[in-house]
Design goal:
- The chain is of the alpha+beta class.
- The chain is 33% helix and 28% strand.
- It contains eleven helices and 19 strands.
- It has helices at 2-13, 19-31, 66-73, 114-134, 140-144, 152-160, 208-227, 232-247, 322-325, 339-346, 355-367; strands at residues 36-41, 47-50, 60-61, 77-79, 87-95, 98-107, 165-168, 171-178, 186-192, 196-204, 253-261, 266-272, 276-281, 284-288, 307-310, 316-320, 376-383, 386-387, 393-394.
- Strands 3-2-1-6-5-4 form a six-stranded antiparallel β-sheet, with helices on both faces.
- A hairpin with a 4-residue loop joins β11 (253-261) and β12.
- It starts with a helix and ends with a strand.
- The relative contact order is 0.10.
- Keywords: Hydrolase.
- It is an enzyme of class 3 (hydrolase).
- It comes from Streptomyces atroolivaceus.
């Protein structure tokens, strides 16, 4: 533990662009490793990109690569050599359920024991935390995530996001946006306290910069209201007033607001537009429909009302924007009519952070040669419930 604490101190003291140097020195000293390489997942979550001022190594795919195996399974993966010699170890770099990338090292067999792998994994967790902090001061890690250039609208949207996944004992949540490098109006946001999870999914009207600016206004208005202590209808009302004051009804935004009680599974919901939700309980998939209320910003001083439902341990919720459920096949059938439920059932054994991409891959197959003509956003939440002092799960 003292050795790990020393590494943490060195990481905190290091210049943001030298974090990998600190980790490399620590791993060489403690585990006699040789080569060390850090890769971060790109915005599309399809490749793992090398972190370097002048990257020389090619990206590797998230799927069907040794690094991707560690990234997907979220546990160390050891590539043993056929002949005696060092092994290559791939270690996931993750922060509170948000999967950032993979650290790969060449290590002697003596450093591949379960205890050694656990120690190296602990260092990776510290590295992940410092990468998030370093993003304030350097572009190094953000640049590594880019397989191609982002549009300005997409840059704004990705900077708004809290992360791509998060986990707590009570739940696990993952989300993804497509087209990742040209998204403009869809967005998601969450905040977790000791007692509640607040989750919002936003679909801003319009295209390009217009949609991105609108969504920025909505997300920040909702955050401002939430941080001021307003309840869910109050948050919707404040954001509604902000959008109307700016655009006088010419633009509006569709939002689904959800507030989960972590102790009981009680959920408040305000449905102000197009994002829709499905629930997988056991093997049964059903849409969860709410009373449709006006999108934010259509009229002055709209009043919103919260509805309630309850989630049970084992429930999986999936939220999709209209770019998902309204997408049509070549035959004209909407994806949300049947195919989305089939996709949710087919991927029921995947962890929540992998489900959004799997559903979006199914959506692309469903559309065939026709490219996406709108933003597509999928959020997946697995509810576990809170363990009581007796070990029972409360719902």
């Amino acid at each position: 533990m003292d050795r790990f604490a020393a590494v943490e101190r060195e990481l905190r003291r290091a210049a943001p662009h030298l974090l990998l140097d600190v980790v490399t020195a620590a791993l060489r000293k403690q585990y006699d490793v040789q080569n060390v390489e850090l890769r971060l997942a790109d915005y599309g979550m399809t490749t793992l990109q090398v972190v370097s001022e002048a990257p020389l190594a090619e990206p590797v795919p998230v799927h069907n690569s040794p690094q991707g195996r560690a990234f997907g399974a979220q546990e160390p993966y050891v590539e043993h050599r056929a002949t005696p010699g060092p092994a290559t170890v791939h270690l996931p770099v993750t922060v509170r359920g948000d999967r950032l990338g993979v650290l790969s090292v060449t290590a002697p067999e003596s450093s591949c024991s379960p205890a050694a792998l656990a120690g190296m994994q602990q260092i990776c967790e510290a590295l992940g935390h410092e990468i998030l902090v370093a993003g304030r001061d350097t572009d190094l890690y953000l640049l590594a995530r880019r397989a191609t250039r982002l549009t300005l609208a997409a840059e704004m949207q990705w900077q708004l996001l809290p992360g791509r996944s998060v986990s707590r004992p009570e739940f696990s949540l993952g989300a993804h946006l497509e087209p990742a490098y040209a998204i403009f109006g869809d967005n998601f946001d969450w905040s977790v306290s000791a007692h509640h999870l607040t989750l919002t999914v936003t679909n801003g009207m319009g295209k390009g910069m217009e949609a991105a600016l609108l969504t920025n206004l909505v997300v920040n208005a909702l955050r401002n209201a939430r941080r001021a202590g307003l309840d869910l209808p109050g948050q919707a009302s404040l954001a509604d007033q902000a959008v109307y004051a700016q655009h006088r009804g010419a633009l509006h935004a569709s939002v689904l607001l959800l507030r989960f009680d972590l102790a009981t599974g009680e959920v408040e919901a305000v449905d102000a537009g197009s994002p829709r939700m499905w629930r997988l309980r056991g093997r049964s998939v059903e849409p969860l429909e709410f009373d449709a209320q006006l999108p934010l910003g259509m009229f002055e001083e709209t009043e919103y009302v919260a509805e309630r439902l309850r989630v049970e341990p084992g429930d999986r919720l999936l939220i999709g924007s209209d770019g998902v459920y309204d997408s049509a096949s070549a035959a004209g059938e909407r994806y949300g009519q049947r195919a989305l439920a089939l996709s949710l059932s087919a991927h029921r054994f995947l962890p929540s952070e992998q489900v959004p991409q799997a559903v979006l891959r199914d959506l692309r197959d469903y559309r065939g040669a026709t490219p996406l003509d709108d933003d597509a956003l999928v959020v997946c939440l697995d509810w576990f419930g809170r363990q009581s002092s007796t070990g029972d799960t409360s719902a």
